[in-house]
Design brief:
It is built from 12 helices and 2 strands; from the N terminus they run αααααααααααββα. The chain is mainly α and about 350 residues long. About 30% of the residues are buried. This is Gustatory receptor.
Length: about 350
């Protein structure tokens, strides 16, 4: 949680001054990075790839919006972390911390590779504000800093937020799956009211955590998905419209990294988060089946029957992005269809 303290995503009572200062600096740098990237890209674009450039810029704007949406929900994040104590959410902490560390290192690596592998003056000048490239080290350092902040805003920041979201959904999904297995392991005759209530109480704790997740991540996850969709559109549009063999290999690798990262971020996030409604339905079906067996054996009392009725009437839980984007596995195919439609539109536009 160190990253979230430094960025101001977690608000503590005795928050350290350096954490407050760092979060304010990050907020300012986000705005500066978005403005700088917009000016640089528009100034060096032409009519053939203007649509791709606009999509690229909107990707970064969406990433910044996801950041600020998380900052706005910092008090709710504290409540979410407290509610996690009711379920086992620490089993994969080391893996998550390692992935966050790798994600934070990638901007440094890519900034170094891009700066020192690119020698074409035309591409370097687009990042150096027109400064004289004779000042070699000054220009290289300036470009390295700019590229670092570009990659830090997207995809590093969006990846970390998506990882946090996916890990929370994974913990809830696993916890629900454990409850479902417990129901299956119970002998029908011994699955009495007290055991049913105990399982339903633990299920309610999980349900409360999921509601907190929805409250915190509803807006950020929508902007994260939008950012990745915009990036996929920008890169595919660029490759279809302007197949320039003069593009340096470092920039081509950067394009491929953007594209692969955007696709994986969408697929993995929606796949993991989409397991939550699946496990919730499995739980409901398993509990209903066990209660039905007790009813057929005539060993269920009226209170058990009422529990069964309440569970059946309980609305299906669904994670969404601001009540606009359903967070389900089927959404992956819907987004792929959207990107395919965009590709067809780009081809038809250029054909005419």
């Amino acid at each position: 949680m160190t990253f979230f303290r430094w960025t101001g995503f977690i608000e503590e009572l005795n928050q350290k001054v350096r954490h407050i200062f760092a979060s304010r600096v990050f907020d300012i740098l986000l705005i500066v990075t978005c403005v700088d990237l917009s000016i640089s890209k528009i100034a060096h674009s032409d009519s053939t790839d203007l649509k791709s450039v606009i999509a690229f810029i909107f990707c970064y704007i969406s990433s910044a919006m996801a950041w600020y949406a998380m900052r706005y929900k910092r008090k709710d994040i504290n409540s979410l972390l407290k509610s996690l104590r009711g379920i086992n959410s620490t089993s994969h902490d080391k893996i998550i911390n390692f992935l966050v560390f790798i994600d934070c290192c990638l901007p440094v690596i890519f900034a170094a590779i891009f700066t020192y592998a690119t020698t074409e003056t035309e591409f370097l000048s687009s990042y150096s504000y027109g400064l004289d490239l004779k000042h070699y080290w000054v220009v290289r350092i300036l470009i390295s800093i700019k590229i670092y902040f570009y990659y830090a805003l997207y995809p590093s920041t969006t990846n970390i937020v998506a990882l946090f979201y996916a890990s929370l959904c994974w913990c809830c999904s696993v916890h629900i799956s454990i409850l479902t297995k417990e129901i299956n392991q119970h002998i029908t005759d011994l699955f009495e009211l007290s055991q049913q209530i105990d399982i339903l109480k633990r299920k309610k704790n999980n349900y409360d955590v999921l509601n907190n997740i929805q409250n915190v991540f509803s807006v950020p996850i929508l902007f994260i998905v939008l950012a990745n969709v915009f990036m996929c559109s920008a890169i595919t549009g660029r490759l279809l419209v302007k197949n320039d063999s003069k593009i340096p290999i470092s920039i081509r690798l950067g394009f491929m990294y953007y594209l692969v990262n955007a696709i994986l971020c969408i697929v993995i996030t929606l796949w993991i988060a989409g397991s939550v409604p699946i496990e919730m339905n499995k739980f409901k079906e398993t509990f209903y089946k066990k209660a039905q067996e007790r009813l057929l054996l005539r060993i269920a009392n009226t209170e058990e029957l009422q529990l069964k009725i309440d569970l059946i009437n309980e609305p299906d839980f669904e994670l969404t992005g601001f009540d606009i984007l359903p967070i389900r596995r089927s959404t992956i195919f819907a987004l792929i269809g959207t990107l395919f439609t965009y590709t067809v539109l780009v081809i038809s536009t250029n054909a005419t």
